[in-house]
Amino acid sequence: MQLVKTALHTAAISALCASAAFIAPSFASSHREAPFITTAPKVDNTDFYMFRSYESGRTDYVTLISNYLPLQDAYGGPNYFKMDPNALYEIHVDNNGDAREDITFQFRFNNTLANGGRGVELPIGNQTVAIPLTQAGPINSVNSPASNVRETFTVNMVRGDRRKGTVAAIPRAAGGTTFDKPVDYIGVKTLGNSAAYETYANQHVHTVNFPGCPAGKSAGKVFVGQRQEGFAVNLGPIFDLVNATAAQITDPTLINAFAGNGFGIQDKNVTTMAIEIHKDCLTAGNGTGDPVIGGWTTASLRQGRLLSNTPASGHQTTEKTGGAWVQVSRLGNPLVNEVVIGLRDKDKFNGSHPSGDTQFLSYVSNPTLPALLGLVLADGNAAALAPTNLPRTDLITTFLTGINGVNKPTTATPSEMLRLNTGIAPVAFAQQNRLGVAGEVLRVGGLANLGNAVDLAGFPNGRRPKDDVVDIALVAMLGGLCVINGANNGLGLNGVPGVPSLTSVCAPASVPLGATSAAVHDGVDQAVVPFLTRFPYLNTPLAGSQ
């Protein structure tokens, strides 16, 4: 159902959707969002998903997906897109609302040349010479003898502080703590058609046992591998000062029909780290505490790096590293750093922790995005699009706490992260509302009719691949959902000291375009992107050669 086709006449609906506004100004997933991270794509996280699993028979589980290494062209050989063995990739979970990690999943990678580090060799004349490619023939099995490089990884589970907590290796159910990663989809001659590649990739969905979980609930899954980019966005036109007219982006009949149409980055691949774990393993008290959890993903590099001017033969790196881990990438809600945080503070945000997020509040309370849209779309008249209810306390509240009754924890320390109520049951893929919780409230005609709701398990209650966070974002950011009809709507949006009622937050004068603001969209439909209905949910990657 199109959000823009629905009448927006109840304060309950508007407040709920406006509360998604901080997470919403996301024109694209988090690609190349800060100056430093452009120099280190292997530690650039692009998207983070966290949701109750909707695969049949797995609905008591939570899936966490962290994507890295953006904008991969499938034909990018001969080395393709191996992960960085000198990096630490982490997924963090806060289960008591204090803005600090209680559980962390740590991924480390290792790339090993075949033949004892010499690589696959061929007899050429009277010599044996190493081949220059990733593969020496067709590949269809784990650790195939035709693979010139074996890509492996380990996963640790840390309880407590990520650096000082209790660390335990996550073992495979079949034994051992080393996992194989599938070769990127080089092409059909090496790895077969897409069905054959998916069969091969599925051999790398590892059954594991998570330490410290309740009895009978420790089994889960882990997968790391290349996937098709799952985020729909007109990336080029958006960053080209929104290369479309105001009439185009406020006309819902033009979705997928104006310049730059299509999915923009759907012809790219990413590298996915995915975990499926029983929900009681993640919540406080092993399932007896608050059902709301918060999550975010980070990547860190060692503080020191020494480059060799005479790299040793057989090694997959030319550097030696040392010193403390330094966080260089961070992502919770989609694209906060890319289009909310000012350019001068983007690297600072990537190195920050949720517990320190009050330092970035001015970017939320007085956002520049609406004014920028006004400048490029309304003949230089920023007021034509930018709401005037400043400071934007409606955005601050959601940024700080989550939505009461939906995904706000019992204790809500101000912080930016993706929050999920694990007590809300998922629905099958076909029944999911692409506009998440906001769209479902609109579909049933308001909060008074929530008994008729089918799907309350989507964004901003976590995030699923199908959730169209961009459309919700644009509408909320431009005030299209910020209409007034009473003060407190029961959602607890004014539960933070110093935050005024919705009456003063959403004054009619702050919504200059009214219904036009509610019609804004990015030109593409997230719901038609191809996905799997099973773990790891993101689609088979594109092949480098047909």
What does this structure look like?
By secondary structure, the protein is an alpha+beta fold. It has a domain at 37-332. 17% of the residues lie in helices and 22% in strands. Strands 3, 4, 7, 8, 9, 13, 14 and 15 form an 8-stranded antiparallel sheet that branches. It has a 5-stranded antiparallel sheet with strand order 1-2-12-11-10. Strands 5-6 form a two-stranded antiparallel ribbon. The longest helix is centred in the middle third of the chain and has 9 residues, at 194-202. The radius of gyration is 24 Å and the shape is globular.
Q: Count of helices? A: 15
Gross morphology: globular
Percentage of residues in strands: 15-25%
Helix content: 10-25%
**Spans of 5+ residues with little confidence (pLDDT < 50)?**
1-28, 481-515
Largest sheet: 8 strands, antiparallel
Tell me how many strands there are: 15
Briefly note the structural class of the backbone. alpha+beta
Q: Radius of gyration in whole Å, from Cα?
A: 24 Å
Order of helices and strands: HEEEEEEEEEHHEEHHEHEEHHHHHEHHHH
Amino-to-carboxy terminus distance: 36 Å
If you average the pLDDT, what whole number results? 81
